[in-house]
Amino acid sequence: MMKFKYYISLFLVVCFFFSCKKNEVSQTTTIKQDLFIDLNKLNSEIVQFQKLVSTNKSQKEILEQFQKSRLAYKKVEWAIEYFIPETARFMNGPALDEMELEENKSFEPHGFQVIEEMIYPEYKSEDKENVIREAKIFQSNIKQVQNIFEVITISDNHILDAVNQTIYRVIALGITGFDSPILQSSISETGESLISILKPLKSINSNSKTLAELNKLIQSSQKYCDENNNFNAFNRAVFITEYLNPISKKIKAFQKEEKIQNVKKTSPLKPEIETLFDKDAFDVNAFVLSKDYNFTADKAKLGEKLFYDTNLSKENNRSCATCHNPEKAFTDGLKTNVSLTGSNLARNTPTLTYASLQNAQFWDMRQLDLEKQSVDVIQNKDEMHGSMDEIHAKILLNREYINLFKKAYPKTEKPEPWQIQNALASYVRSLNAFDSRFDEYMRGNKNALNKEEIEGMNLFMGKAKCATCHFTPLFNGTVPPSYSKTEHEVIGTPNEASGKNLSPDKGRYLYNEMPQLVGAFKTPTIRNAAVTAPYMHNGVFKTLVEVVDFYNKGGGKGLGLEVENQTLPFDELKLTKNEEKALVTFMKTLTDKKYQ
């Protein structure tokens, strides 16, 4: 299966990149030569690492060589992650099984993070053969990468796209420790990642004045990393606003000067953005089913009317807003809401703000889009018990609705059932403000956050490891830098605040019966978390203070509960009370203006 997927990916990559212009071949040959040189160096470092393990060298020597190997990878990461992400996943992805939920299959992880767990903080000689095995698999992946780079042509616009993606990767994954969770070597590696983008950019125009300015910015960024390489103490707020954001803007300026077109692709990140924190950086249309479902203001206006219409429920007594109160950031403030028959529902009502910027809906991720989500709720006998056919019939008899539908869908003669779903979804897609005090700070307003809030941000993206699951800047589980896949996590949520018993809810496992998915739930956004209490899928925690305390103790497993498949690290974070307070203070800065 894995070989089949690899050859399909190879075929698609070849077809995609052979569409580039012939006159770009000469300059990309130099780029490819550089890549092959760096890939051979990476292979040599892995060979040396394997040799040290094979000859039973000390942990210190093995660890030092491992770090050299990681630094060598950072020189080619910009290209591997962009052009061959499937292979990149098995070179530097999380040490967790790769899930193919559609096929109910999983594949064991490989690469640096798997090796890291074997050699640090303690290396045991009985792991020797497994470490060697992983090193050999890594070499095989290098060969796969070389095979693909041999047959593709790399155009200027792909270079710019890959370089932009590298900066976003550094912001959202690199400096958070996502790809070095135990060794925490991310800061020193960040400088190498930034330096790596200069060669491909120079291949476009080495005499550019803007590129010379970019070179100075990157050199100073590397120096900042070298001088401040303590992972926990690193000031990410300063580094992003004073180094990475200016680098992003300079890259965009270089692209405009060289008149390089954006790559045409469907992506949650709009190609024209200057930084990852631009107000309109994300495109909700990247998550729709087809162009017919694209967002428009007229669709959202229609959807808003439907959202507050109790006629969508069987007894005409409950609307979407009944459980998603706009004053509470579209939650209800309850541990779990009440069903139509008066019993408690199983799960907490999640916020609809920023729900459109993910490709999985509901806590158990059972629906992939907002259109299906709305139908699921409307027709659920415990929630609204409505009928889409009956709703459609009512709308056809309502002159006001017919006029709104004509304006929203001018190409159709009368309202169609799919348009009801799409209009509701479009309203939800309008609920992404990106105007919190955090956003203001990241866009240059230094007075938007105080000292404690900045400390909290640095903890969130560093020592507390929050940002390795709640990715910047969406702060949900939609994975950067492509932001095209939404993750689930197993954190061992207790059934009551005392933490004595595990929640019996099996989450994602109910729909995909794989042992890794028992108790797996979608990673929600923590934007507007200050007004969306209580928390977790079962509403077990009333305050953010309780939530932080739970994570500080290592989740369910850290509390002593049996959670064999927990994906959350179960070691104590060892946050002080002041650090816990700063974390909560920072999370409150993620509140949209209308809820402040």
UniProtKB/TrEMBL annotation:
InterPro entries: Cyt_c-like_dom, Cyt_c-like_dom_sf, Cytochrome_c_Peroxidase/MauG, Di-haem_cyt_c_peroxidsae, Imelysin_sf. It comes from the Bacteria. GO terms for molecular function: peroxidase activity. Keywords: Heme, Iron, Metal-binding, Oxidoreductase, Peroxidase, Signal. Gene3D superfamilies: Cytochrome c-like domain, M75 peptidase, HXXE motif. It is found in: Cell envelope. Residues 298-432, 451-591 form the Cytochrome c domain. Residues 1-21 form the signal peptide. This is Cytochrome c peroxidase.
